[in-house]
Structures are given as structure tokens and as C-alpha cells.
Amino acid sequence: MPAEFSPKRWERAYRRVVATAFLRVPFYRDQWVAAGRALDEPEPTPSAALTGQLHRLCPFARPFDASREPSLWIGDGRDLLDALTLVGAPRRTPVLEVRPAVLDRRALGTPWSGPRYGVLLAPDAQVVDERRRRALNAVALALAADAGRAVVVGERAALDAILPELDGVQVSAVERVTAARAGDPGVAYDPHLGYLGGRVPACGRTHLLWRRFHARPAGRALAVTALRRARPVLVDVVPDGSGTLTTALCPEHGTPTVSTH
């Protein structure tokens, strides 16, 4: 676990993102208009309220165009890779993520260094029928079978349903949990912020991916800012269920953790 975390540098990184948001992003500029004054910080926004807002969360100079690019909520996969590293998932092992739709991604991180990647559709995925679901899952299942092992990421119900399809494969199952369950084993996830962190086995605490996210109290909630994303710009987003969360420094590792009150 790296020990180079600096609260001052973390705060400066947050302030840079805030300044960019107010200067260049319609969603946050509109908050100034609504307030009738310049704000020091954006108003915390529930994650659920970001649905349908991609066009307003991108900078004026780089607007989102649904006719030319896929949804930006998909992310690039590096947050999942970092979260799996936190929870101690096996490295150099194919990663299979249970998702509601197929994603044409072959590796996490960079194609030449990240582990192989595939998508598994759970039985309740929106497909024509069960035969089609199994056909779409065949590529990911073959990836796992060829390697003889796989890391499988998904909600508990989805894992329980999908793991029988991996019979004969050495599986490391990693549960994807909501912010409301921070502290449980697995990786913490929000539909719009993506993978936020995971519980570190060595200390039993859920660590935030602090290089990627900043977190601060916002009343009784926790407001999270994506520090490395240029599109969409996400500042002071309140993850679903995070009204019971707080942040602190891990006494063993000296880096930010999140936990329930």
C-alpha cells in the first residue's frame, strides 16, 4: 500500500477540479446562475440526479455527442483494475465483469499490460432469450477456460447465478457493493462515479482510490469528486446511499478510507 498520500496535495487537486468545473462545464456554471453569485464549491448532487446529464457535464469545448461516441458512463476500466488491486485479487488473471450489456473491451488498463477482460451477462440481462445470452457469454467463458482461472466481479445475486457457468475454472469472486455497504468485503461502486475503492484484507477497511477520487463531508452525506476525468466532469457527487458514510485516514496505511457512521 503506497504511503505517499498528502492531505494538502489531495485538497489542491480537488480545488483544481472545482475551478475547472466552474470555468468550463455547463452543469456547474448553471449552479452559479441559480445561486446568483460565485460559489466556492459546487452544490452536492445525488448520483441518481446525473442520469441524462452527460451533455451538461462535459466541457463547452468538448461536448458529448451520442451520435459519435459511446456513453461516457462506461469508463475506461482502470478504476476497476485499481480497485481489484486494493482487495488483493490475483494479478495477471482474466477479469470477467457481470454487466447488463456487452462491452467490446479486451483488457483492463492498457492492452499491452492489463489483464484480459470479458463481460458476462447475468440471467436477468436484457437479451432476446437465454440462448442469445449464452452465446454472448461464450467469449468470456472461453477466456476463463483457456486460462483455467478468472476474477469475476458482480453483485452477490449475479455472482450466485453466474458462477455455475464457470464450472472447472478456478474463480476468485469479488462482490460489487454499493456505497451504503462500504465496509463489506469487495469493491465499492456507484453507477456514475464507477469503482471507488475496496476493502483491503490487511486492515479490514474500505480504502478510497484516492489518486482517482476526493471525498469530503457534505452535511450528513459524503461528496465525491473524480480527480482524473475530463469528460464527464464529476464534482461533489453524493453516491447512492452515502448519507451514512464518513471518511478518515487509515491508521495503518495513512490513506483515506470510507466507512459507515
How would you describe this protein?
Strand 6 and strand 7 (194-200) form a beta hairpin. This protein is 25% helix and 25% strand. It is globular, with a radius of gyration of 19 Å. By secondary structure, the chain is an alpha/beta fold. It has a nine-stranded mixed β-sheet with strand order 3-2-4-5-6-7-8-13-12, with helices on both faces. It has six helices and 13 strands. The relative contact order is 0.17.
Lay out the secondary structure:
Layout: H1 7-24, H2 26-35, E1 45-46, H3 54-57, H4 78-86, E2 95-99, E3 117-121, H5 130-147, E4 149-154, H6 156-162, E5 170-177, E6 187-190, E7 194-200, E8 205-208, E9 213-218, E10 221-226, E11 237-238, E12 245-249, E13 256-260
Parallel strand pairs: 1-11, 2-3, 2-4, 4-5, 5-6
Antiparallel strand pairs: 6-7, 7-8, 8-13, 9-10, 12-13
Helix pairs in contact: 1-2
